[in-house]
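Take a look at the protein record below with the fold in mind.
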Amino acid sequence: MPNSPSPTGNAERNAILKLEGVCVALAASRKTMVRNISFSVRPGEIFGLAGESGSGKTLLMRTIFGLHDDAFVEKGRMTFKNTEFSSSEHRRRVRKLLGREIGFVPQDPFSSLNPTMRIGRQIREALYLGKGISPKSAEAGKTTLELLKEVGISEPATAVGQYPDQFSGGMRQRIVIAIALSQEPSILVADEPTTALDAYTQRRIINLIIERSRNRNLAVILISHNLELLRKNVDRIAVMYGGQLFNILASDEIGSSASHPYTEALFKCIPRKDMNLADIQSIPGEPLSAGYGAAGCAFSSRCGLRRDICDTSEIPVNASLEQEFDACLVRAGRRP
């Protein structure tokens, strides 16, 4: 079950990750794609990042963790475990933490595994790079088997001698998670980890991530366009659209009066057991991708609450790193 958000002051002091006014731009065009993103994640929290495809959520996460060669942090700052990373030195410094303090689970596990290398060797090399454990040592062999067993790989002693293409998509995703966990990271970023998996395998992968988070006090950022999946499995959800941050709220408040109009509209698109086909609503208009201009709300042209101010004023930003946040200009500052 999701945890309850901590009081804002304590949560900010204890946060493992803080983003403050982060803007992301493309390297080639210098165009700003993501604007003024501010939120914090605390140890052991499962934090969801939601939005339609193209909203900027993956671009943001891959850039702040040094994984996007075609984009950079233009403005703002990131603080990780009380160490601040300014935009000017961000990529160089954060890349030193990848595979150590920061674990990353990509959308496509096959692309992150070497198809010519047995998975046992890949895990042992990760242990060497991250923790200095000799790949040929008994400790490396024992730890590799323990990791595979921990993530639910049956017969790990056999699995270490196999290649990635001998496993299903769900099993490959488990292997990638095992590699990420081998470094004992402080935070795990999972970017659409269940894409292209069947519903049963999706459930098992999400349960695995949740279980490891709770057992290890591991902070998790779970990126997904599936709002219903996040609502059922995370503690808090941040919702992005058009490169803007619209909402941060407890998962059990999705669909309530605390939700931004865009979040409410997304929720009404989700088929649920208690709904008839006629109850499922679509959002009118064409979606905007990241890169929307600075002034105005990116959702205004599709929103039923639209006022003139929505097209001319900058939307509120979460400058004080509130645990719950609503960027609606019409309902600014409103709480249930």
